[in-house]
């Protein structure tokens, strides 16, 4: 059933993001400025993300004091084991990139409401630093993952029974990464597994920096927009209303990944860190993550007025074409 969910979400996400790209390029108000580039960049990233999710087809679960991200691998197939492992790593790294993209949107939205901030940090070519941030996070996340998440003989021994009992898979049939937070000492006691903690600490630093941008800059952006809406100039009101629409869409786009991605994955990481066995494994987290790129384009499409009008015009145009086609067909029947 999970494969059907992923296939459906991939198809729907691609269609919605292509439509959103068209709306951004053709229906955006002129006052949106260079933000269009960041919005198109995000839509293209989400198309990449949903295709990667479908190709990787990973499962996420917690076992004891380990978190596991794995995909099934067929030995001696056309797909080498190194490519299978690369898909798992890319899937994890893409999560980190999404955090940077989310933060970039809030940085830009705040800069529009604060000219001093914009001139100091985002004027001219400095604007393109927002596009570089996801790739910096990707390199950082990959380094952390390679340091503390890669499988070894100890993690193989710890997880092989779980893979066989729960998924009926041997170790040579899977590619996986797993931060294992504790290991057994010489006396059988639990001791910290330092590489896993260092790797996760680096990942948490990236997540925390994104959350800071969302909460701090988001709240300041909201206050600035409210102040601008009090202006009497109609031109200023139009600009402020547009900023409000963009901000509202961005807030909802923040809630979506928090509910579908960050909270479920946080629970899956937190419990093994404090050595609480969830006793649970399924495709639930993977399916929730697969829904994210499907739902994420919707706030922009329906909250931003010009995009909403563009969608209505598109459907009206299709309706008129069908009506004209129907009338032509009726006229032809009348001449027979």
TrEMBL record:
Gene Ontology terms describing biological process: chemotaxis; olfactory behavior
Source organism phylogeny: Eukaryota, Metazoa, Ecdysozoa, Nematoda, Chromadorea
Membrane-crossing residue ranges in chain numbering: 6-25, 46-70, 82-108, 128-150, 196-217, 246-270
Name of this chain's protein: Serpentine receptor class r-10
SUPFAM superfamilies: Family A G protein-coupled receptor-like
A single cellular component GO annotation: ciliary membrane
Organism of this sequence: Caenorhabditis nigoni
InterPro entries: 7TM_GPCR_serpentine_rcpt_Str
Molecular-function annotations in GO: G protein-coupled olfactory receptor activity
Subcellular localization, as worded in the UniProt entry: Cell projection, Cilium membrane
Job of this protein: An odorant receptor which affects chemotaxis to the volatile odorant diacetyl. Specifies AWA neuronal cell fate via the odr-7 pathway.
Alphabetical UniProt keywords: Cell membrane, Cell projection, Chemotaxis, Cilium, Glycoprotein, Membrane, Olfaction, Receptor, Sensory transduction, Transmembrane, Transmembrane helix
Membrane topology reported for the UniProt record: Multi-pass membrane protein
rRNA processing is among the record's keywords: no
Entry keyword annotation includes Oxidoreductase: no
Gene, per the UniProt record: Cnig_chr_V.g17506
Family: Belongs to the nematode receptor-like protein str family.
Assembly, per entry: Interacts with odr-4.
